[in-house]
Amino acid sequence: MKIIIINGPNLNLLGKREPEVYGNETFESYFEKLQIQFPTITLDYFQSNIEGEIISKIQETSFAYDGIVLNAGAYTHTSIGIGDAVKAVTTPVIEVHISNTFSRESFRHQSYISPNAKGVIIGFGLQSYELALKSFV
């Protein structure tokens, strides 16, 4: 099984940015733990702060992977283009969020990805990614 994790804007700052919301661990460190925890899955990782690069990566990888774990960050709430990319591909996409977006500002309650995702996992910290991977196996 081959799965890619795609992270959006500002997630490259995990471990530094708002640790009270996002924790103290970098995503790279956490990704290494996921690779050890899921040795039977080929895991790849991509992060971009640029909306078009995320759309291109979804399109590029979707037909070559068994699943996509997508945390589009703030683009979740603003990008019709990312939502359309998820809708356009046949590879199942699990939308994840580290924080509980419904306990935050009201603009974070809208997702353009959710209607086209296989499922949504919100609010379990970095463990949200682990839960998404478990849903594929």
Automatic annotation (TrEMBL):
<protein>
    <recommendedName>
        <fullName>3-dehydroquinate dehydratase</fullName>
        <ecNumber>4.2.1.10</ecNumber>
    </recommendedName>
</protein>
<feature type="binding site">
    <location>
        <position position="77"/>
    </location>
    <ligand>
        <name>substrate</name>
    </ligand>
</feature>
<comment type="function">
    <text>Catalyzes a trans-dehydration via an enolate intermediate.</text>
</comment>
<keyword id="KW-0057">Aromatic amino acid biosynthesis</keyword>
<keyword id="KW-0456">Lyase</keyword>
<dbReference type="GO" id="GO:0008652">
    <property type="term" value="P:amino acid biosynthetic process"/>
</dbReference>
<feature type="binding site">
    <location>
        <position position="84"/>
    </location>
    <ligand>
        <name>substrate</name>
    </ligand>
</feature>
<feature type="site" description="Transition state stabilizer">
    <location>
        <position position="17"/>
    </location>
</feature>
<dbReference type="InterPro" id="IPR001874">
    <property type="entry name" value="DHquinase_II"/>
</dbReference>
<dbReference type="Pfam" id="PF01220">
    <property type="entry name" value="DHquinase_II"/>
</dbReference>
<dbReference type="InterPro" id="IPR018509">
    <property type="entry name" value="DHquinase_II_CS"/>
</dbReference>
<dbReference type="InterPro" id="IPR036441">
    <property type="entry name" value="DHquinase_II_sf"/>
</dbReference>
<comment type="subunit">
    <text>Homododecamer.</text>
</comment>
<dbReference type="GO" id="GO:0009073">
    <property type="term" value="P:aromatic amino acid family biosynthetic process"/>
</dbReference>
<keyword id="KW-0028">Amino-acid biosynthesis</keyword>
<dbReference type="GO" id="GO:0019631">
    <property type="term" value="P:quinate catabolic process"/>
</dbReference>
<feature type="binding site">
    <location>
        <position position="108"/>
    </location>
    <ligand>
        <name>substrate</name>
    </ligand>
</feature>
<feature type="binding site">
    <location>
        <begin position="98"/>
        <end position="99"/>
    </location>
    <ligand>
        <name>substrate</name>
    </ligand>
</feature>
<comment type="similarity">
    <text>Belongs to the type-II 3-dehydroquinase family.</text>
</comment>
<comment type="pathway">
    <text>Metabolic intermediate biosynthesis; chorismate biosynthesis; chorismate from D-erythrose 4-phosphate and phosphoenolpyruvate: step 3/7.</text>
</comment>
<dbReference type="GO" id="GO:0003855">
    <property type="term" value="F:3-dehydroquinate dehydratase activity"/>
</dbReference>
<dbReference type="GO" id="GO:0009423">
    <property type="term" value="P:chorismate biosynthetic process"/>
</dbReference>
<feature type="binding site">
    <location>
        <position position="71"/>
    </location>
    <ligand>
        <name>substrate</name>
    </ligand>
</feature>
<feature type="active site" description="Proton acceptor">
    <location>
        <position position="22"/>
    </location>
</feature>
<feature type="active site" description="Proton donor">
    <location>
        <position position="97"/>
    </location>
</feature>
